[in-house]
Every structure is written in C-alpha cells, then in structure tokens.
Design a protein that fits this description.
InterPro entries: YheV (IPR012658). By secondary structure, the protein is mostly beta strands. It has 1 helix and 4 strands, in the order ββββα.
Length: about 80
C-alpha cells in the first residue's frame, strides 16, 4: 500500500542542494522513495535484505599462504652509548 508523499523538513537534495524540496513516500512494493520536486532526483531504499557482496579478490585473499616467502628474523636493539 502506497503512503502519501510528505516533505522532509531540513532535507537537502544530493543533486541540486536545494533545502526542503525532498518528498518521501513508500510505493506498493514496500520501497521507500525520496524525490526532489526541484530537479526530479529520485532514490529508493528497500526494507528487504540485499545479498551480500562477495569479497573482492586481492593478492592477499587469493594466496593460500602455503608458499609464504616472507623472512622471519629477530631484531635486537642495542642501547646507545652516552658520550
């Protein structure tokens, strides 16, 4: 069930930067929609859960760490002498 369009006090349009020109309403699909009456900008948000984005493949998560070629070394710091 669609809700009536209502202005959002103090809201600034992300496209035209006009204040108090944003209306918000819920459409029949249950999405919340904001709309600017000055420039026509529209944006929708849904209450339904969106599928998670898969992790981007990088050199870090692509490697299986079996062939780790990093050098492990103990480092000792010597206190400086007072002259």
């Amino acid at each position: 069930m669609a809700t009536p369009k209502r202005f959002i006090a103090g809201a600034v349009c992300p496209r035209c930067a006009e204040m108090d020109k944003i209306m918000m309403f819920t459409d029949d699909a249950g999405e919340q929609i904001r709309e600017c009456v000055a420039c026509g900008f529209t944006d929708a948000m849904s209450d339904t859960e969106q599928p998670a984005n898969p992790e981007l493949e990088t050199r870090v998560n692509r490697r299986d760490n079996q062939d780790d070629h990093t050098v492990k070394q103990v480092v000792f710091f010597k206190a400086g002498s007072e002259d």
